[in-house]
């Protein structure tokens, strides 16, 4: 066999079974993003987030999640959390803001973002985190499952942990527009067509029951919507007459057909641009 042939065989074997990646440097950042092919934790130098004080209308959820996160960072018992409800009401923003607030208090805590499509690799990620000396919030944003989606089985590895149990230094925070992580019409369809309706969807519906904390987010009132915008203006030094601010903000949300924290931020970005303010 020629040297070139041996080289090609060696390269093919390397592609099939690549060498293990070096251990991640957890001192490189306070936030990481998990990627696969190959498996790696990439440091995030600057997290896109807003200050906790700018999240309006979610006081109960804010206080509950903040206290739970403090407990975890101090090595005390804490619960996995599911933040569910209306779009654009600050679910993912709250997770990132709470992480920053706890870090600012001097408590050691890191956050790792895990994409829903990478859930099948979660056991490999947990193995890396289990060996680390730090404490981690594992953050899965916009989590939901369709009727033929098997990714939910991988999520149970985080919530239940299998025979090893969930790593003591890892806690899962997930956000979803759905309280049971699956469409309501799918739940009803499976119940109506199943031989045993009470068991038809229990495996998937019970997944959300494995979260110790359920924090609901609901559409905001007009007063909360305006308070959000006022908070952004104060934080970024945008000075606008109250009558004008109110009129333009209400017109903006009317054209969008919705009120939410996301709509408030989008209006503020437009307003800041018109005022010549860089964010």
UniProtKB/TrEMBL annotation:
<dbReference type="InterPro" id="IPR027417">
    <property type="entry name" value="P-loop_NTPase"/>
</dbReference>
<dbReference type="Pfam" id="PF05673">
    <property type="entry name" value="DUF815"/>
</dbReference>
<keyword id="KW-0067">ATP-binding</keyword>
<feature type="domain" description="AAA+ ATPase">
    <location>
        <begin position="77"/>
        <end position="202"/>
    </location>
</feature>
<dbReference type="GO" id="GO:0005524">
    <property type="term" value="F:ATP binding"/>
</dbReference>
<protein>
    <submittedName>
        <fullName>ATP-binding protein</fullName>
    </submittedName>
</protein>
<keyword id="KW-0547">Nucleotide-binding</keyword>
<dbReference type="InterPro" id="IPR003593">
    <property type="entry name" value="AAA+_ATPase"/>
</dbReference>
<dbReference type="InterPro" id="IPR008533">
    <property type="entry name" value="DUF815"/>
</dbReference>
């Amino acid at each position: 066999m020629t040297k070139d042939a041996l080289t090609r065989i060696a390269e093919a074997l390397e592609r099939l079974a690549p060498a293990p990646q070096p251990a991640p440097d957890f001192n490189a950042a306070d936030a990481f993003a998990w990627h696969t092919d190959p498996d790696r934790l990439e440091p995030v130098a600057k997290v896109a987030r807003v200050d906790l004080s700018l999240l309006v209308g979610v006081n109960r959820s804010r206080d509950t999640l903040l206290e739970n996160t403090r407990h975890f960072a101090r090595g005390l018992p804490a619960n996995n959390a599911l933040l569910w409800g209306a779009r654009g009401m600050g679910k993912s923003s709250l997770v990132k803001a709470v992480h920053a607030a706890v870090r600012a208090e001097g408590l050691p805590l890191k956050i790792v973002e895990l994409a829903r499509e990478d859930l099948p690799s979660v056991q490999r990620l947990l193995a890396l985190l289990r060996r680390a000396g730090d404490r981690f919030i594992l953050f899965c944003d916009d989590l939901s499952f369709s009727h033929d989606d098997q990714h939910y089985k991988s999520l149970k590895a985080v919530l239940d942990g299998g025979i090893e149990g969930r790593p003591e230094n890892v806690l899962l925070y997930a956000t979803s527009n759905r309280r049971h992580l699956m469409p309501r019409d799918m739940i009803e369809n499976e119940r109506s067509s199943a031989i045993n309706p009470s068991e038809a969807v229990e495996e998937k519906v019970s997944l959300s029951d494995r979260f110790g904390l359920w924090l609901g987010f609901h559409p905001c009132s007009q007063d909360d919507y305006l308070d959000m915008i006022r908070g952004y203006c104060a934080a970024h030094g945008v000075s606008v007459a109250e009558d004008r601010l109110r009129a333009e903000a209400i017109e903006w949300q009317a054209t969008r057909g919705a009120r939410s924290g996301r709509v408030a931020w989008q209006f503020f970005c437009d307003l800041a641009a018109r005022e010549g303010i860089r964010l």
